[in-house]
Fold this protein.
Amino acid sequence: MKYIVILGDGMADYPVPELGNKTPLQCAKKPNIDFLAKNGETGMVRTIPDGISPGSDVANLSVLGYNPKNYYTGRSPLEAVSMGVDLSEADVTFRCNLVTLSDDEDYSNKTMIDYSSDEISSAEAAELIKDINKWFKTDEICFYAGVSYRHCMVWRNAPSGFKLTPPHDILEKKITQYLPGGKNGKVLLDMMVESNKLLKDHPVNKSRIERGLRPANSIWLWGEGKKPVIPEFYGKYRVKGSVISAVDLVKGIGICAGLKSVNVEGATGNINTNFIGKARAALHELESGHDFVYVHIEAPDECGHRHEIKNKVRSIELIDELIVGTILKGLEKYEDYKVLVLPDHPTPLSLRTHTADPVPYILYQKSKEQASGVSGYDEFQAKSTGIYIEEGHTLMDKFIFK
């Protein structure tokens, strides 16, 4: 049996006035996903447990079969693992975004213009993080470059007591009330303030401004956590597998779970990603002896955060055509296979951040096609079936074993 999970990060949404009060999933042309919905089990699943923030870290852990209440230790350590950082139990990691803040003189009065600095290139970002590390590195603190705007800071033997805010939650808002707080927050705040002074005239940023791009004029520290201990996926499900993603967070979860992390050239984490390259990589993993592949696509989530309505619809259509369509064609040669399609969480365009609402899922098996009673895949049709899974981490058990 071959198992494929196709996860469109943040695909689920609320009705959008500009789309005739329909959701992006309702508007998108997606014949391949609709076929799976018509001929498989379609329902709703809750991926975010009570009392836990609705992040992609929590939700993807849940989808992979790990109860976040037992295994979640923070976002940034998962990313650090993906970057190859060797963590001890005493280390605390932080996500370090390269962001664009407004030009207000007082740092605390600045506005969060862009949490991604116009999705800065990895090459430019690496140069900035190299200098950030030169400026702030100590025997205990070190910075590591990741992909695009997503980077990591490790504080060895760090204290506790931080109150931090994800930058994508405060787009176009003054940062005054969202600055690092808590008993030891001032250390982080001081670095952020100083980074603004150092980065605003950096040659990389001068070049970006000349090209009409937003400068990466500050670091933003958040998402602290400690090294996770996650049971191996093979030990739980007895299938060898791979994870395919452009973002360090999902790669890190996969690596912690003992899955092979596959890099795809041109995979960016936005709508300009190499969709078909991811699909081909997934099929190659199955042909190479693995029985499970987890394909994560970040594009719908990024479009939700950026309030790009047309792009969110288009990203779903590209997932359907280039990923689902390619994979289904490649799976035809196998006697039997299962496909699971779902978002990890909603990223409503109206809110520009994640919510904890249940999400629609499809569970399709080639040899056991069934009439689901729906004509396609969206939030409302999935809810109409009455099938609801309260504990998201049990969906993988159902997918693999039932």
User: Anything to note?
Assistant: The longest strand covers residues 92-101. The CA atoms of residues 163 and 181 lie 5 Å apart.
